[in-house]
Amino acid sequence: MAIGERIRFLRNLRGMTQKYLGMTVGFPEKTADVRMAQYESGTRTPKADLTSALAHTLDVSPQALDVPDIDSDIGLMHTLFALEDLRGLKVSEADGEICLRLDKSRGRTYDDMMKMLTAWREQAAKLEAGEITKEEYDQWRYHYPEFDTTQRWAKVPSQALGDMLIEGLKSDK
Predict the structure, then answer these.
(1) Looking at the chain, which residues constitute the CATH 1.10.260.40 domain(s)?
(2) Over the stretch 112-171, which tens digit does the pLDDT of each residue have?
(3) pLDDT score, position 1
(4) How far apart are the first and last CA of the chain?
(5) Cα–Cα distance, 56 to 164 (Å, whole number)
């Protein structure tokens, strides 16, 4: 999630308007909402001092607004927090181990994520069982969903092709 999307998400979570947030971080009343809309849409990117002011106003860490650096532990944690917000990822415990799980109440988001994670688990199980090599497993991961053999992904025809097919079916009658 880009910084603008995080700002919007957290602003809405806090029940703030763009104008209020903009004025609180020091923008003039006349332009506060426009400026915040620019940051939220990604037209503008806030500099470090503005990011800090926004984080303070939203009562979050500045890292909660930044695009997470998944190569750092803190960045990875903020990525997982964003996935909790967006995809219903939950942290829990099972058999004395910390686990990540999906929230079933998320409906289609849950269903879509479950399909993708199931496909990933199938490939990981094949690797563990020695049915595929580490190279084949990596090839699958780095080309996902192109190499997904679970056949869960269907390409949707273009509107023009769909229209042509419908016209063809009509003319066959």
Answers:
(1) 3-80
(2) 888 988 999 999 999 999 999 998 998 888 888 887 777 554 444 556 656 666 676 676
(3) 67
(4) 49
(5) 55
CA distance 122 to 132: 11
To which residue do tokens 């229209």 refer?
163
Q: How far apart are CA 7 and CA 52, in angstroms?
A: 12
Place of tokens 């679970």: 150
Fold of 3-80: 434 Repressor (Amino-terminal Domain) (1.10.260)
C-alpha to C-alpha distances, 124 to 6, 93, 100, nearest whole angstrom: 32, 21, 16
Per-residue tokens: 91:
């942290």
Amino acid 128 reads E
**Is the preceding omega at residue 157 within 30 degrees of 0, hence cis?**
no
Does the structure show a pLDDT above 50 at 69? yes
